[in-house]
């Protein structure tokens, strides 16, 4: 009787392990393609807006089946450009201002990072992404809707991410901290338009 009970327990355990081996997909890693990926920034002010680019230098995404489980990304703030100002001198002046202590202080904080903490399916290819964004050494939680497609060999993601710059000690031109700015006021929030491309990482 005792031996039969032990045998039944062993068979149940074996069945559970076998079932899990079929139902739980093995983790798969994708490597971000910096050349194919783009990150466009949009900053708004009372009198208009400016746009530009920054480079995603590296990133790795871990999936189980079609679902993203983890992700880490590094952004090179020294690559920051302005695309809407055509005059060369004015363009260089604005880029320099954005890189100095009034804004991103790139000399001290040349990199920004984003870590995915959760991805929740919504409908079809639509997901809610939550994560931790670090700028100027300050980390805050952010969340945003994203469209993610994964065919097993290539993963793409598009999203519009709204960032409150004042949470990262970027207060220049903010009417939340300075009075009488008039038409020189700059929005606290800026937008990041993400177009991410990643390929299956082989040999790992």
TrEMBL record:
InterPro entries recorded: Lipid/polyisoprenoid-bd_YceI, TTHA0802/YceI-like_sf
Signal sequence interval, chain numbering: 1-26
Gene3D superfamilies assigned to the protein according to its UniProt record, in alphabetical order: Lipid/polyisoprenoid-binding, YceI-like
Entry keywords, A to Z: Signal
Organism: Ohtaekwangia koreensis
The protein, known as: Polyisoprenoid-binding protein YceI
Lipid/polyisoprenoid-binding YceI-like domain: residues covered: 29-199
Stored PANTHER family: PROTEIN YCEI (PTHR34406)
SMART domains: YceI
């Amino acid at each position: 009787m005792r031996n039969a009970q032990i045998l039944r327990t062993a068979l149940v355990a074996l069945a559970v392990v076998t079932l899990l081996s079929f139902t739980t997909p093995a983790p798969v890693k994708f490597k971000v393609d910096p050349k194919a990926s783009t990150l466009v920034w949009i900053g708004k002010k009372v009198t208009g807006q400016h746009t530009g680019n920054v480079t995603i230098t590296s990133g790795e995404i871990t999936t189980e089946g079609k679902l993203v489980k983890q992700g880490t990304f590094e952004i090179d703030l020294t690559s920051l450009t302005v695309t809407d100002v055509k005059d060369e001198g004015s363009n260089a002046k604005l880029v320099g201002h954005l890189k100095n202590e009034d804004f991103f202080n790139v000399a001290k904080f040349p990199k920004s990072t984003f870590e995915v903490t959760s991805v929740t399916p919504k409908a079809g290819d639509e997901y809610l992404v939550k994560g931790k964004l670090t700028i100027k050494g300050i980390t805050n939680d952010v969340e945003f809707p994203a469209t993610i497609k994964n065919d097993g060999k290539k993963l793409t993601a598009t999203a519009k991410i709204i960032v409150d710059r004042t949470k990262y000690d970027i207060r220049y031109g903010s009417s939340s901290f300075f009075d009488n700015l008039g038409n020189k006021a700059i929005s606290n929030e800026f937008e990041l338009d993400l177009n991410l491309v990643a390929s299956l990482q082989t040999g790992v």
